[in-house]
Write a structure and sequence with these properties.
This protein is an alpha+beta fold and about 110 residues long. The chain has one domain: Alpha-Beta Plaits (2-Layer Sandwich), CATH 3.30.70. The chain is built from three helices and four strands, in the order E-H-E-E-H-E-H. The protein has a four-stranded antiparallel beta sheet with strand order 2-3-1-4. A hairpin with a 2-residue loop joins strand 2 and strand 3. Helix 1 packs across helix 2. The radius of gyration is 15 Å and the shape is elongated. The termini are close together.
């Protein structure tokens, strides 16, 4: 398993994405959160096709924090089923990954039981 992940999260608004991103950085669950707005999302939900404007949050974290990240995002998010996707970082700048490591919480044993 990769030690680091990029997390993709869609949000209903710029404000919601900012709230989630800022909170997660303050709580050291993300080293960094980038917000891209607007995006257009086309998806099935409750039996129909939706075409909505959303905001995309792209965050960098340690893979071992994934359970804590998912739990906290669900607490902060307005969606019943928020998108929370962890993409493994296969390779990156050593200096940048050292920074991500330094700016996020230490992974405890319970976070590594995947």
């Amino acid at each position: 398993m990769s030690e680091f992940s990029v997390v993709l999260i869609t949000a209903s608004s710029q404000e919601e994405a900012q709230k989630i991103g800022r909170t997660m950085v303050e709580e050291r669950l993300f080293a960094c959160a980038n917000i891209i707005s607007p995006i257009q999302s086309i998806f099935h939900w409750e039996g129909k096709i939706n075409d909505e404007k959303e905001v995309l949050l792209i965050a960098k974290t340690k893979t071992g924090l994934s359970d804590e990240v998912e739990k906290r995002v669900k607490e902060l998010h307005s969606y019943t089923v928020p998108e929370i996707l962890f993409l493994p970082v296969l390779r990156g700048s050593k200096d940048y990954l050292n920074w991500v490591d330094a700016e996020t919480r230490t992974v405890t044993k319970q976070n590594t039981d995947h």
